[in-house]
Amino acid sequence: MDRPSVRQLEYLVAVAKALNFREAAKQCHISQPALSAQILRLEEILGVKLFERDRRHVLLTPVGKEVADRAVRLLAELDDLASAATAHAEPHTGVLRLGVIPTVAPYVMPRALPKLVREFPKLEILLREEQTARCVELIESGKLDLLLLALEAELGDLETEAVFPDPFLFACERKHPLAKKLHIAEGDLRGERILLLEDGHCLKDQAWEICKARGVREPMDFRATSLGTLAQMVSAGNGVTLLPSLSLKTEGKLAGLAVRPFDEPVPFRTIGLAWRRTSPRKALFRAIAQSLRTLAT
After folding, report:
1. Cα–Cα dist 240/219, whole Å
2. Following CA atoms 55, 61, 66, 69 in sequence, which dihedral angle do they give, to the nearest 10 degrees?
3. Rounded CA gap, 88 and 178, in Å?
4. Which of 291, 290, 278, 274 is nearest to 146 (CA)?
5. CA atoms within 13 Å, Cβ hemisphere of 93
6. Is the pTM of this model over 0.85?
7. Is the CB of residue 178 less than 8 Å from the CB of residue 240?
8. Which letter does DSSP use for residue 20 in this model?
9. Rounded Cα–Cα distance for residues 162 and 18 (Å)
């Protein structure tokens, strides 16, 4: 029985992502006819039609999508297999491709990166800042090795390890009535309108769930691209919001901003690491988690 080659699976994934044979061929550094021939051969081996195509459109068939998704996972596992021997012999060496979400990266990495470089001098760390869904997509496809993010988000079948909790704080303009309180009780938010991050940030969903449970009205028709923008809008009196404690040293310095803690139980998110279950570098990832825990103290 013929089996698909690794190269054919790579071509399949490239076409499935681009939905354009010319673009996929360019990414794979081969000619378009050669790529098309390999896809046709793959369809012959599998006995199914993977793509619907004419002169203008390329679409994945239902079985094509399933095969392409499996190919992504298989290629990622092959990458893990290739690095397993090195990871066993020298577990703290090599390249580490680390994905970090935007609501963590600017507040953790300036301190974390020098620390990791000191403690793992033979490790080359390559950083990539992406929103959660994109991080998960990249690690599942083998383009990232490790993620630093909020573990409450949808992470599929990734293995995780908590690093530290990140409590939420209430933020409002200094003239807001709630700025006079030392602590914010659950019922204090009832009737308030909240400003949130734009869609795609897992922090936006977490903050809204917390506020909705406390009687907050529908969020205002505004979506910030960053916590910095959010804090500036709130300090100007345009609404209230929730800020993670990690961001306080940076975003809490605005002159017009008042930040107050919540009464118990304090809402929080869990900052942690996530990786593929098939990764052979779990010992390294757990060592990195232990190193990062000291940042919260």
Report:
1. 10
2. 20
3. 55
4. 274
5. 8
6. no
7. yes
8. -
9. 35
Tokens of 49: 């039609």
Distance from C-alpha of 157 to C-alpha of 260, rounded to nearest angstrom = 36
Euclidean distance between CA atoms 260 and 256, whole angstroms: 13
Mean of pLDDT values over 179-183: 92
- Other residues' Cβ atoms within 10 Å of the Cβ of residue 274: 23
Q: How far apart are CA 103 and CA 17, in angstroms?
A: 27
Which position has the token pair 């995780």?
160
Q: Is 183 helix (H, G, I), strand (E, B) or coil?
A: coil
Residue-wise DSSP of 113-178: HHHHHHH-TTEEEEEEE--HHHHHHHHHTTS-SEEEEETTS--TT-EEEEEEEEEEEEEEETTSGG
What are 240's two structure tokens?
Answer: 């209230």
Quick one: which H or E segment has residue 102?
none
Taking only the tens place, the pLDDT of each residue in 30-45 is 998 898 899 999 988 9
Q: What token pair was written down for 158?
A: 């990734």
By the 10 Å C-beta count (0-12 exposed, 13-18 middle, 19+ buried), 166 is classed as buried
Q: What is the C-alpha to C-alpha distance for residues 244 and 250, in angstroms, rounded to an integer? A: 11
Query: Which residue would you say has higher pLDDT here, 2 or 135?
Result: 135
Q: What's the rounded Cα separation, in Å, for the pair 127 and 150?
A: 17
Helix locations, the chain, DSSP H: 6-18, 21-28, 32-46, 62-89, 105-119, 132-140, 202-213, 227-235, 248-251, 282-293
How far is it, in rounded angstroms, from Cα 179 to Cα 170?
9
Find how far residue 203's CA is from the centre of its chain.
11
Tens digit of each residue's pLDDT (9 = 90 or more) over 10-28: 999 999 888 888 898 998 9
Distance CA 51, CA 259 (A): 54
Burial class for 145, CB neighbours closer than 10 Å (0-12, 13-18, 19+): buried
Identity of the amino acid at 36: S
